[in-house]
Design goal:
Elements (H helix, E strand, L loop, with lengths): L2 H19 L8 E5 L5 H9 L4 E4 L2 H14 L4 E4 L8 H7 L2 E5 L2 H14 L4 E5 L16 H11 L6 E3 L9 H13 L4 E3 L6 H6 L4 E4 L1 H4 L4
Parallel strand pairs: 1-2, 1-8, 2-3, 3-4, 4-5, 5-6, 6-7
Helix pairs in contact: 4-5
This protein binds pyridoxal-5'-phosphate.
The site of pyridoxal-5'-phosphate has 13 residues, from strand 8 and helix 9.
């Protein structure tokens, strides 16, 4: 077995254990294998081993890598997890099955327009800046309810859930719990939270999508 394939199996087993600990079923947690910066030859073994959901951070990179891979694996899904410029909304709607980084009204407006034009909508997650870090994207926790209402009522968007990236220097669990609380009071089921270092804690707090890169593909160069 190659390294990626064995680490993928370990990650799946850890997801099943974490879910089992809180009496959730492993199928309730989608594993997004974050393949940003990884070339096709590193991604292929994961596809061949049955992994079907991948995460990318850059429109341009996804556009060069995924059309060919999807020709071979038509049921592969690609999720945009990085910051998205409004002027890339059209390409993003065409390319991605989900966007985890909806974090401002100008982007909501562009996505709404492009979804109507394309006649198909990616799954949408609103990114929440749970740590209120100035350098990070995301809606402040206190403004999420109003932003969700704006997305739904004004822009006609269907929002699947919320996403967060906790501050690197803080324990992540309070951030995951906060995200789950905001989602629950807004009637949202989707929770995109947890990365290589903390996906098990995220699953125990209700994650429906974990975004795991280096634990599967190794360190990025
Ligand atoms: C890169 C990235 C990940 C994956 O990070 P790892 O620590 O390698 O698992 C997850 N989420 C986002 C938003 C990222 O940019």
């Amino acid at each position: 077995m190659n390294d990626t394939v064995s680490r993928l199996a370990e990650t799946r087993a850890a997801i099943a254990r974490a879910a089992g600990d809180v009496e959730r079923r492993p199928e309730e947690v989608a594993l997004i294998a974050v393949s940003k910066t990884m070339p096709e030859e590193v991604i292929l073994p994961a596809l061949e081993a049955g992994q079907r959901v991948f995460g990318e951070n850059y429109v341009q990179e996804a556009k060069t890598k995924w059309p060919a891979l999807r020709e071979r694996f038509p049921d592969a899904e690609v999720h945009m997890i990085g910051p998205l410029q409004s002027n890339k909304a059209r390409e993003a709607v065409a390319l991605f099955d989900a966007i985890h980084s909806l974090d401002r009204e100008s982007l909501a407006k562009e996505l709404s327009r492009e979804i109507a034009r394309a006649g198909k909508a990616p799954l949408l997650f609103v990114q929440v800046n749970t740590g209120e870090e100035p350098q990070k994207g995301g809606i402040s926790p206190g403004e999420v309810d109003a932003f969700l209402a704006l997305c739904r009522d004004h822009h006609g968007l269907v929002i699947a859930g919320l996403m967060c990236i906790p501050p690197a220097d803080e324990p992540p669990s309070p951030h995951f719990a906060l995200l789950a609380k905001i989602a629950a009071r807004n009637g949202l089921h989707g929770l995109s939270m947890g990365m290589s270092a903390d996906y098990e804690a995220a699953i125990q707090l209700g994650a429906t999508h974990v975004r795991v890169g280096s634990a599967i593909f190794g360190a990025r160069g």
